[in-house]
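ARCHIVE CARD
CATEGORY: sequence design from structure
SOURCE FIELD: tokenized fold
FIELD CONTENT:
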């Protein structure tokens, strides 16, 4: 039997339409809203300025794609990074505020801030990267 070779192409990094601080401001302005329940990926995409679909079906699909392209990191997530975690039997994504804090649609159903340790001890982070965003 031959070996299976998986090719990992370099993914071109482009600037998001909205910078990190503007994206975090956009998110913090929506704290308390229940309109984004179960739409954590769409919320992050919109926060960083992408009006059209991300090209991923859901956060789990995005996480698999990021993993396949070696774009996930362990350890403390820097401010503005996307934090991928599992809660309530599904993968979710929030945005790091730094110092272990995140913002986004949380499992409680509302946009809020939280200590990441209260949401999950098993998480990865990536740069705010939406390679298929428009």
């Amino acid at each position: 039997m031959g070996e299976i070779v998986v090719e990992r192409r370099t993914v071109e990094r482009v600037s998001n339409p909205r910078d990190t601080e503007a994206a975090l401001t956009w998110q913090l302005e929506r704290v308390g809203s229940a309109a984004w329940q179960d739409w954590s990926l769409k919320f992050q995409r919109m926060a960083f300025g992408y009006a059209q679909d991300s090209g991923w079906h859901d956060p789990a699909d995005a996480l698999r794609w990021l993993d396949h392209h070696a774009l996930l990191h362990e350890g403390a997530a820097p401010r503005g990074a996307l934090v991928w975690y599992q809660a309530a039997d599904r993968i979710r994504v929030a945005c790091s505020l730094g110092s272990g804090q995140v913002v986004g649609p949380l499992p409680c159903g509302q946009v809020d801030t939280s200590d990441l340790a209260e949401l999950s001890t098993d998480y990865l982070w990536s740069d705010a990267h939406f390679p298929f965003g428009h």
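CARD ANNOTATION: Residues 34-126 form one domain. DSSP finds four helices and five strands in the chain.
SHELF: design records, drawer C
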